[in-house]
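Researcher: I'd like a structural prediction for the single chain below. Treat it as a standalone chain; there are no partners to consider.
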Amino acid sequence: MKEYLKKHFINARGKRTSKKLLVIESDDWGSIRIPNKEVQEYLFNKQLIKQTDPFSTFDCLESANDYESLFEVLKNHKDDHDKHPVLTANMVMANPDFEKIKANQFQSFYSESFAKTYETYYPNQQTFEALQKGIEQKLVFPQFHAREHLNALQWLKRLQSGDKRFLIAFDVNCFAIDDLAKGNNRVNLMASYDYQNEEELDFVKESINEGLQLFEQTFGFGSKTTIAPCYVWNDHIENVLNQSGVKSLQSSYIQQKNRSGRHERVWQKMGSSNQFQQKYFVRNVLFETALSHKANWVEKALESISIAFFWGKPAIIGSHRINYVSGLSLENRENSLSQLDELLKRVIIKWPDIKFINSKQLFDMYS
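Model: Treating it as a single chain, here is the predicted structure.
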């Protein structure tokens, strides 16, 4: 009952629409996490990651086959305007270049584009080409997540100081381990826009600007929406994003607003605007099948969509990349795709006038 009432509270606030709109937002595409099963077992044995953490258990870089399998499910469904569901894929544009960072003795951060990472991980697949084909078919719509899904300067400080845990992980091309250091607001170093001082803020600003430039070079258009990694950002970050043309902020219903080395929880409202006239859009449907294989995610999502429509809000589904990758578990991907297929089928039956749109289209409609 508490969760049910919270869903109503989240949707009661903010601007309304009479249309039944459904958006699927998915984060982390392009980013590395756990390289492969062999490395995963090694990290488990070294107690650098926990087997109880779904992201350590299932999340890894997507392959061409992962894209193609997801697109096949999306192609099974259409709204009454003959439009397929479209996944707003929030892209991480680059990953650490481990060789260059080590050669420089951890003094500077170097990165490589996610397209190059695809070639390294999957030399016999055309993963970037599979993504491009999905874009052409309007099954996936890329938007900007970050340059790297990593608090890079804090990571370098761990490496420079000789932190054995991060050095062990570094040697197997991994940074996504549990962080035990004091002063970190999180249990890992995945919050790209978290910072402790002006030097780190300057680095974050540079990473955002370079990341957005790389996004436009890669896809041929700018990103109008974004989602901050781990939902951690503040007014300074919004200003940088605004100056680079980002006009809409995807969000959880709670923002982790970093202030003077601590996090302040801020509740966001659907369609509200900040001081830069950027609009916030709140994810009000959770579809994270990898987080629990026991939960009935289809029923949970249908309930959330019903509540969103009751309050005149678009249904914005949050469904991370972890659900749709098979590098660490084919069973995890197949389970997620089966449930996604069932959800989309039942959504169309229950709401035949539903409209499938991406995050930029949602912003355009509210504007």
